[in-house]
Design goal:
DNA-binding, 60% helix, homodimer, three-stranded antiparallel beta sheet, Arc Repressor Mutant, subunit A
DNA sequence: ACCTGTGTATTAGCTATCTAATACACTAAG
DNA sequence: CTTAGTGTATTAGATAGCTAATACACAGGT
């Protein structure tokens, strides 16, 4: 699926939440597809099942996942379409954080943009490879 | 100086550390200039003095700041030049995190790059304005 | 000398996170 | 029915980070 980065200060459950969202956005997880069970994903990521459960619950609340109790968890048929304002807001916050660190380490704007482009395409490619 | 973002999962001492580095990179803090005292900056940021002290100590260990005990803290005369490999490594990690969230929220590469450009220039402008 | 402002250190308590170990209710398959 | 596999809930413990309060040693100005 994806990997957990212990060096990332973001909580693990948030990393899982974002990882699932990313897989769906990339098309690796199609609507209706089943998602790994809480225990399986926990074992895969070397993480506690409770942590995975927390991420799944948040995704279910957001309408991204559909929980069939006692049966399993699936990708919701209709993915919620976030308002453009919300999406841009989240992206904007992330951009500010990234730009701040880029400036702090003394990188020019061009270098910062280059790194984003290669990183973006590398993430996409990485998932294409596994498919 | 700068602001602390409580929503950022990064520890406050790390935000302070990066904030100081950013001010130096922007030229707002020249070598030899005095930095706000631990207590003053703590009061300014509405944060505990211990947290500021931790950031200052890390910056002093890294050669970014020079501590004159009992007198004050100053920007080091010779700023350490991080190896290009180190700087690129830090930037690369940040770029991967940013690209991941951009993909997760369903943004195209072009939009992600645009947000970085505006954010970068906005941070720079914001500091130019205060100067 | 005295006092104020430095950085530094220590101790305690709080909150969030993660882990671990169970336990429960539900569904599907044998 | 029994069993295995779901999601879910609870409890306890460990750790990291932040806060608060206090104290110490040093430098500089009065």
């Amino acid at each position: 699926m994806f990997a957990i980065n212990p060096a990332d200060p973001a909580p693990i459950w948030r990393q899982i939440e974002e990882g699932v969202r990313r897989l769906i956005a990339l098309g690796a997880l199609q609507p209706g597809a089943s998602v790994p069970s809480v225990r399986d994903l926990a074992k895969d990521l070397r993480v506690n099942p409770n942590t995975v459960a927390r991420a799944y619950q948040r995704l279910a609340e957001g309408g991204v996942l559909l929980v069939k109790r006692g049966e399993g968890t699936y990708v919701a048929d209709e993915q919620p379409q976030p308002k453009k304002a919300q999406r841009n807001g989240a992206l904007r916050d992330a951009a500010v954080r990234y730009a701040s660190t880029a400036i702090a380490v003394g990188s020019a704007l061009e270098d910062a943009v280059d790194e984003v482009e290669t990183a973006y395409q590398r993430v996409v490619r990485e998932h294409r490879r596994k498919a």
